[in-house]
Recover the amino acids of this structure.
């Protein structure tokens, strides 16, 4: 993994500190061209990995990349699935069954959901695989060496202690996509313990890591202990703590943890991208 | 070890189940839902007992508490059955469909002396807590106006079919979405006692409203507006805010930031003249386990703490949830 991963929150009006900024972003990135322009600027500064959700609009960006292979040589995407709001809104509107019916292609469901026929365990594994394939469709023709599950799903499964889901996911991503499975979480120490117990060694774990302990559940101290002592491949996100920290002090803080492999960040202007990239490379 | 169960495994129920199971010294022993798909997922991947009949679950399992996250019309029989068994109960919002049901349930909960809480999670967001504190401290002086607002993309096309599109079952923007704002302003500013007029508008839904606009008067005499619309796709997700104007300034507060404007500096609060902005990064309530937002974990941590320490629930009690139901009824009546 490269040291610098370019994120996509800014493109989709995800802002953890201000609804107003979020609105401004939504206006600025109304058109896909605006996203592509910033993405191209990040490439000009030497960033070659884009870590993004499986948002509907990413499909358009992927199409642009595939259609212009000359401009995107060596360019990689780390997909993060699923785009949770798509499903969450659908569950509110259609219920869980309705949502699965809407997003699972073909007749898969009708076979099982009729009458009192029980939905079996093995069908569940199949369902997970079908949903992964559906999410991955948009990346066809693009290098995706690491494939992540989003924190909302990772942490849901973690809380429910359904640990075998992680093993099923891990195996399927390795086998079918020949990629490294990654995990985004807001509960890094707890997740690490579980993955280790599941026999998943040296996992890629992306979590909030910042000087003020923002979104570091259980507290900053245990995160620092794990970063110092445990065997895994950490990616730091929310390093600026939603804007509460200045880039210099934020990235310098990361420098004390040599195991951190990469930093995920998003920005909308070339100067910001350049500044953050330089700081990361100087400190990591 | 405190033992709990979750009734209803929709979006909120699943999320509660995960948060409950992740609590220290708490065991999620059973879940109940009518969907065979969801239950088979639990059977395949967990050791949690599954039920499709809540009475069977409550009869059979040895529980301390239950989380009720079913559609609103089912709250009454389920909460009642759980209370009769002496269980502590966390009930999703809105509380009850009918006022008399709420009164009966509150009486039963008091009689059984159990922890009782309703899932109005906004009270566990640091910014809204800060707003409440600042208002209690009187930084705005005499209040002149408030506005409680929420917008989001729940129903954005003409399609229906779930209980959310049936007002008899607690569907519609008023019950489901506006209740959050009513409850928030009721506890952060003051309780509404009179409705001066309301508009309930259907935009895409048939049979229920997608927007609620209401002119309200609070106990203190302060008047203001309630503006809620769940068919607004210019919002990525639900966005809830309270604005309060006083003779000494104004505060605009949402889940991510609180913006304070003061005509003169407040030395006591360390707030300068003009705008001061405080962010959730400094105000969030720290949690042991995070899923979807600190507030969802914080409310369950609080509920468990009340059970463990035999404390009276002071945030989001059934009584507070019931008052919100009362205001909802006042709004409905104001349009008749």
């Amino acid at each position: 993994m490269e040291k610098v991963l370019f994120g996509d929150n800014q493109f989709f009006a995800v802002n953890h500190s201000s609804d107003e900024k979020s609105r401004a972003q939504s206006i600025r990135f109304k058109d896909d061209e605006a996203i592509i322009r910033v993405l191209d600027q990040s490439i000009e500064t030497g960033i070659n990995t884009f870590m993004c959700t499986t948002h509907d609009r990413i499909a358009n960006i992927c199409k642009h990349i595939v259609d212009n292979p000359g401009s995107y040589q060596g360019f990689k995407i780390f997909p993060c699935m699923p785009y949770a709001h798509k499903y969450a809104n659908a569950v509110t509107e259609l219920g869980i069954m309705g949502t699965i019916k809407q997003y699972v292609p073909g007749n898969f469901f009708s076979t099982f959901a009729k009458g009192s026929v029980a939905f079996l365990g093995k069908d569940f594994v199949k369902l997970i695989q079908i949903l992964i394939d559906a999410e991955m469709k948009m990346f066809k023709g693009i290098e995706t060496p690491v494939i992540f599950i989003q924190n909302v799903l990772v942490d849901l499964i973690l809380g429910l202690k359904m640990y075998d889901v992680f093993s099923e996911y891990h195996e399927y991503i390795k086998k079918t996509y020949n990629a490294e499975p990654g995990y985004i979480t807001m509960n890094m120490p707890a997740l690490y313990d579980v993955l280790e117990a599941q026999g998943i060694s040296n996992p890629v774990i992306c979590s909030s890591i910042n000087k003020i302990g923002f979104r570091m559940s259980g507290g900053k101290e245990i995160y620092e202990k794990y970063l110092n002592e445990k065997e895994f491949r950490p990616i730091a996100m929310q390093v600026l703590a939603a804007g509460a920290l200045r880039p210099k002090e934020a990235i310098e803080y990361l420098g004390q943890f040599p195991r951190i492999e990469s930093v995920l960040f998003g920005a909308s202007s070339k100067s910001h991208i350049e500044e953050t990239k330089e700081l990361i490379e100087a400190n990591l | 070890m405190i033992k709990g169960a979750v009734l209803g495994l929709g979006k909120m129920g699943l999320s509660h189940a995960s948060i409950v199971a992740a609590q220290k010294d708490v065991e999620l022993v059973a879940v109940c839902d009518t969907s065979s798909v969801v239950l088979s997922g639990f059977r395949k991947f967990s050791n949690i007992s599954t039920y499709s009949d809540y009475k069977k679950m409550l009869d059979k399992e040895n529980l301390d508490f239950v989380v009720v996250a079913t559609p609103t019309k089912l709250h009454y029989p389920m909460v009642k059955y759980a209370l009769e068994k002496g269980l502590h109960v966390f009930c999703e919002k809105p509380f009850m469909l009918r006022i008399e049901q709420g009164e009966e349930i509150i009486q039963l909960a008091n009689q059984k002396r159990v922890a009782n809480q309703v899932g109005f999670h906004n009270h566990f967001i640091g910014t809204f807590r800060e707003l409440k504190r600042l208002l209690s401290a009187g930084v705005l002086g005499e209040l002149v106006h408030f506005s409680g607002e929420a917008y989001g993309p729940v129903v954005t096309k003409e399609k229906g079919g779930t209980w959310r599109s049936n007002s008899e079952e607690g569907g519609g923007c008023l019950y489901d979405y506006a209740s959050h704002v009513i409850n928030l302003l009721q506890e952060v500013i003051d309780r509404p006692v009179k409705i001066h007029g309301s508009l309930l508008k259907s935009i895409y839904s048939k049979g229920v409203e997608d927007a609620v606009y209401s002119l309200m008067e609070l106990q203190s005499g302060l008047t203001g507006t309630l503006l809620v619309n769940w068919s607004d796709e210019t919002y990525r997700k639900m966005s809830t805010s309270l604005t309060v104007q006083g003779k000494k300034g104004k505060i605009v507060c949402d889940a991510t930031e609180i913006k304070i404007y003061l005509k003169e500096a407040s030395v006591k609060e360390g707030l300068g003249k003009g705008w001061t902005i405080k962010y959730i990064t400094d105000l969030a309530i720290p949690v042991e386990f995070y899923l979807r937002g600190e507030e969802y974990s914080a409310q369950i941590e609080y509920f468990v703490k009340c059970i463990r320490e035999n404390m009276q629930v002071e945030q989001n009690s059934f009584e507070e949830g019931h008052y919100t139901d009362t205001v909802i009824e006042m709004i409905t009546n104001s349009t008749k």
Q: What stands out?
A: Chain A touches chain B through 58 residues (CB under 8 Å). Chain A has one domain: 4-283. The domain at 4-283 of chain A is CATH 3.20.20.100 (TIM Barrel).
